[in-house]
Inverse folding.
């Protein structure tokens, strides 16, 4: 999966198309990501302990990673990251549009 935690992404399709947000969690086994302020759902919770508050809680639900695309921090355009091998043998992600290291 080319998307990692704390990456800035843009949503490509669905009800939140065009929204940008930071990746909070990555689930590579399911192929999903949780993005900040995207795909917000209402969760009805019951109080479990005495004195605990119940009610409707808004939280982010996971969306498929194929529906989001990484935004380059330098050129601020959505791009698929390319990989580049450095001289010391390190593999880094690079922007396909401007060539900046991500």
């Amino acid at each position: 999966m080319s998307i990692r935690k704390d990456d800035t992404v843009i949503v490509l399709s669905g009800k939140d198309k065009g929204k940008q947000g930071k990746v909070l969690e990555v689930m590579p086994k399911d192929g999903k990501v949780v993005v900040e302020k995207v795909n917000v759902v209402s969760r009805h919770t019951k109080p479990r302990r005495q004195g605990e508050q119940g009610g409707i809680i808004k939280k982010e639900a996971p969306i498929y990673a194929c529906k989001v695309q990484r935004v380059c921090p330098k050129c601020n355009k959505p791009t698929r990251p390319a990989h580049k091998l450095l001289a010391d043998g390190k593999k880094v992600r690079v922007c396909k549009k401007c060539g900046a290291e991500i």
Q: What stands out?
A: The two ends are 15 Å apart (CA to CA).
